[in-house]
Amino acid sequence: MSLSMSLGESSKSRLYAQHLTTDLLPSLEATRQAIQQTEHDISEYRDLAERLRGLEQTGHAPQTTLTELGGGCYVDAQIPDTSRVTLDIGLELHLEMGAGEAIEYAEKRAGVLEKRISALKVREENIIWQIEQFRGAIAEADAGPKTAQAGVVERAA
């Protein structure tokens, strides 16, 4: 009986450990990376909104800026009218809009991303809880045969 319990507990331990290493830990890492990326995106949208507010304060006067051509090469560029901007909204879609509309878009996008952060953090907490449960189950499965063997030895004595 001790041998069959040992095999069963060992099999459970391996199964739990496999699930932990192939599913839960990678899922936790992916969730944490998604949180970091989303926090970065929120920062970018907030920065965009601030820069657009700065453009509005200048009265949309012409601006001179450095523009990268590629390969670390920059040129001075003249922007004659800053009242309209073009936003890359993803999926290779670009929208031209007024600076005020762009500020509103950036703020709304940051708000949506903040909600995503909340959902990701709930997911992270859930995965951490599952990891703790599986680690406990592994420890219990590993301890099971030893406890059973100790009981058999005590009875024999």
Automatic annotation (TrEMBL):
Residues 28-55 form a coiled coil. Keywords: Coiled coil. CDD domains: Prefoldin_UXT (cd23158). It comes from the Eukaryota. InterPro entries: Prefoldin, Prefoldin_subunit_alpha. This is Subunit of tubulin prefoldin. The lineage of its organism: Eukaryota, Fungi, Dikarya, Basidiomycota, Agaricomycotina.
